[in-house]
Structure formats: structure tokens, C-alpha cells
Design a protein that fits this description.
Elements lengths: L4 E2 L2 E2 L17 E13 L5 E11 L7 E7 L3 H13 L4 H4 L9 H4 L3 E9 L10 E9 L7 H4 L1
Length: about 150
């Protein structure tokens, strides 16, 4: 029988468990879009699920920013506008009445610079604070400020 298993039970040495603190507010990160997927929100509205994986700085490399953009909400559309422009699509091509959302194939792999902000968890929610992509800019504007943030 494999180590840690007996009759349907699995044991794990939880003294080895590690948790990550969120990327601090104000940290600049160079990220690659690793998922850009059309989906449906709980409300039934169309949404885009986005995952951006940190490429630099090394201290945050591999960490992921998640975002769900509801396509029926003007404020979340503003975040999508920022992301599309920061990924290299000219704003005048995006800011049109019938903009066609790019496919995952078109967006995945594009890089951009994001500045992190902490979204605090609601007390009693069972969730922890998490880093969110705040400001989004062209990748060429990335500067590593990780030493001055921590």
C-alpha cells in the first residue's frame, strides 16, 4: 500500500504546508496572459475569465492574477479596455460600438505590465486577501520595483 494511504484514507504532513502572502500593493509585474476565455457569469451575462502569470520580477515569478470581466458592466469593460490596450491593441481600434472580443488564441501569450493592489477579504467570508491587477500598461513600460515595495 502506498505511503500515507490506508483503506481510502490519505494522510499528509501538514507541518510542511506553506502559504503565500499576496503580491503587495504597488508592485509592478510583467505578466503573460495565460488564459483568456469566454464564459457565462452566475447572472447569465457574458464574461471573460482572464489569468495572467507573472514573468518578472523573479520574487513573484509564476504567481497568477485572476480576473473575471462581466461584459454587461461599464466599469469591468473599463478594465477590459485597459487590458486590451496594454496588450498592444490600439485604443482607437478597441473603443468602438461593435468591438469584437479577441479569441483566447489571439490573447494568450501577450505580455503587459500590471501594478498590484490588495483586495481585502470580507471579515468572516472564509477568504483571504488577494492581489489584483490594478493599473495595466504596455510591457515595454515595465520596471522592477520589488526591492522598494517589500
Amino acid at each position: 500500500m502506498p505511503k500515507g494511504k490506508e483503506e481510502g484514507k490519505v494522510t499528509v504532513d501538514m507541518t510542511k504546508a506553506k502559504t503565500l502572502e499576496p503580491i503587495p500593493t504597488g508592485a509592478n509585474c510583467l505578466v503573460a496572459i495565460t488564459k483568456f476565455q469566454k464564459a457565462e457569469a452566475k447572472s447569465g451575462a457574458d464574461k471573460i475569465h482572464i489569468e495572467m502569470t507573472v514573468v518578472e520580477p523573479e520574487v513573484y515569478k509564476g504567481r497568477i492574477f485572476f480576473d473575471d470581466i462581466n461584459l454587461d458592466n461599464a466599469y469591468t469593460l473599463g478594465r477590459l479596455l485597459q487590458l486590451l490596450v496594454a496588450s498592444g491593441i490600439p485604443e482607437e481600434d478597441v473603443r468602438v460600438a461593435k468591438f469584437e472580443i479577441p479569441s483566447g488564441e489571439e490573447m494568450e501569450g501577450k505580455t503587459l505590465c500590471v501594478t498590484s493592489r490588495i483586495q481585502e477579504a470580507k471579515p468572516g467570508s472564509g477568504f483571504t486577501d488577494q492581489a489584483k491587477a490594478n493599473k495595466m500598461r504596455l510591457a515595454k513600460l515595465y520596471t522592477d520595483n520589488s526591492e522598494s515595495i517589500e
